[in-house]
Amino acid sequence: MVGRAWVTWDRPFPVGYALTRRSWKGTQLWGRCADVEGLFVAPGDATGSPFRLIGCEPATALVDALRRADDRAPVRVELCPLDASGREMQRFSVTLDTAGAQPSATGGALLDIPIADGDDKRLPVTARPVWDLWRKGVPTSLNQWTAFSAEGRNAWLRLALHLHFTRADTPLPRSGGEYHLDGRAVSDVPGLHCALGEALDGPGGYYGSGMDAMRDCLSGGFAAEPPFRLVWHDARASRRALADVRLAPEGRLGYFDDVFRTLRRFGVIVELC
Question: 256 CB contacts (<8 Å, ≥6 apart)?
């Protein structure tokens, strides 16, 4: 987890990302930066475009790597985007090309440091508005994910999963009770899982991003553990939206029916309304 003291600095712009390394001793800060150029790209635009940290303030360990007189080897760190409160939104590994570090136009002795990883580390441009919303803080109202494309909803689910594992106030798993799913909001597979996560764990909640992940959640350790009752409002609208989606091309059941049967198989009482 990112320490609160790491996310404040005396500059006219906020800390956007923390750079960390983890070991058996805990999490160590390697630096922080204002932005990452080229993180979000449109299809086909990534090749040859800049991919670098902007306005990076290196911590001691990274300063040492930058000052080595010998050939500076690439440095592996974890890149942690931060929301307005300093909460870690996500975490993924990147390789820094320390030999390519240059003074930053942001000033103040900050650096711009190239990221040496390939395009597989970049995110679709459709994820940017999702991140912009989550940057303001954890969602506080339902169905905000409906404003985004299917790709954007997948980005939402990744943020929701990270929130589940990192938030300090994650409730203990509970069984029993009644929950309500808004079927009108479901128009695709990621939307179904966004709606299910919020039905069971409130705004920004997570309960799987696909069939296998949903089974993992049903097996325990997440917001709601079977048995419980799920009232699926406007289920017909959800079924129509997913009518052509199947787990396998030769599958006889649509995705809606697969989800319905899986929930019941794990002991969830599903009421279709």
Answer: 192, 235, 238, 239, 242, 243, 245
Residue span of the structural domain in which 80 resides: 4-126
Nearest-angstrom CA–CA distance, 263 and 243: 18
Dump pLDDT digits (tens) for 37-74: 999 998 777 666 789 999 999 999 999 888 874 566 78
- Cα–Cα distance for residue pair 191/271, rounded to 1 Å: 19
**Dist CA 103 CA 189 (whole Å):** 45
Please report where in the chains the tokens 């309960």 appear, as a residue: 207
Residue 133 covered by a domain: no
| Together in a domain, 149 and 265 | yes
Asked if 118 and 142 sit in the same domain, the reply is no
Residue 132 lies in a domain: no
Task: Report the domain count for the chain.
Answer: 2
Query: Which residue's structure tokens are 């990270």?
Result: 162
